[in-house]
Amino acid sequence: MKVKLDEGLSYRLKPTLQELGHDVDTVVDEGLKSEDDTVLADVARQNNRMLFTLDRGLGDVRQYAPGEHPGIVVFRLSFAGPGTVSRFVEEFVRNQNLDEMAGCLVIVEPGKVRIRRQEDDSENKTASSD
Fold it and tell me: Coil, strand, or helix at residue 94?
């Protein structure tokens, strides 16, 4: 899967995700640090990359509707340091099939993955990651 890491995620995730077989670039590598969410989402769309982020604003289904982008994965952890966040993201990638999330809006919290697909309309599909 082609993935773009938002600036809030550690650059150390890039080689880890590459070792897991993903094509990874980062917002920082592309000189997009501090850009508006809409710019980041547009660049990810243009490059056909699933966007990984901690930014809850990118989880707004009204603005980033499923099927209108290659996929957005929002990681929601409260009060976690960079190492904890990186381990959480790595565990998610190891345990989930990203191809099945293409075009989806995905909210990932400890113990819960919510996947909003284009055909879901108002329903959420929930999978437990326990």
Answer: helix
**CA atoms of 59 and 63, how far apart (whole Å):** 8
Predicted confidence (pLDDT) per residue in 23-35, tens digit: 999 999 888 888 8
pLDDT, averaged per 10 consecutive residues of the chain (130 residues), comes to: 92 93 92 87 94 92 92 89 90 95 95 88 46
This prediction has a pTM of 0.87
Side chain identity at 10, as an amino acid letter? S
Name the one residue in this structure whose structure tokens are 């650059």: 11
Give the DSSP H/E element, type plus range, for residue 53: strand 50-53
Phi, psi of 15 (to 5 degrees): -65, -30
Q: Which H or E run contains 26?
A: strand 23-26
Phi/psi of residue 63, nearest 5 degrees: -90, -30
